């Protein structure tokens, strides 16, 4: 349900979802990809111990 809700309310994930569906991907397949993106964001936030930032700049 989090993936479906984020597709509806998060502009970045909404655009990603629309683009993939227009490319011909199965809707549930794209929802699974969104789930994976959310999971990676959650793990990154926990590992770094910092809040999520949409436009994070790499300081390398």
Briefly summarize what is shown.
The protein contains three helices and no strands. The chain is mainly α.
Strand and helix order? HHH
Low-confidence stretches: none
Sheet-strand content, in percent, reads under 5%
Structural class: mainly alpha
Question: Helix segment count?
Answer: 3
Give the count of structural domains. 1
Query: What's the pLDDT, averaged over the residues?
Result: 91
How many beta strands in the DSSP annotation? 0
As a whole number of angstroms, the C-alpha radius of gyration is 13 Å
How far is it from the N-terminal to the C-terminal residue, by CA?
A: 36 Å
Inertia-based shape = elongated
Name the helicity range: over 70%
The major sheet is characterized as: none
Describe the structure.
With 60 residues, the chain is mainly alpha-helical. Helix content is 70%, strand content 0%. The protein is built from 3 helices and no strands. It has helices at residues 2-9, 11-22, 27-48. It is elongated.
Question: Topology of this protein?
Answer:
Blueprint: H1 2-9, H2 11-22, H3 27-48
Helix pairs in contact: 1-2, 1-3, 2-3
Features:
60 residues, 3 helices, 70% helix, mainly alpha
């Amino acid at each position: 349900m989090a993936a479906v809700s984020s597709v509806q309310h998060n502009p970045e994930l909404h655009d990603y979802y629309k683009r993939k569906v227009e490319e011909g991907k199965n809707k549930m397949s794209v929802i699974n990809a969104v789930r994976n993106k959310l999971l990676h964001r959650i793990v990154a936030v926990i590992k770094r111990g910092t809040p999520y930032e949409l436009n994070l700049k790499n300081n390398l």
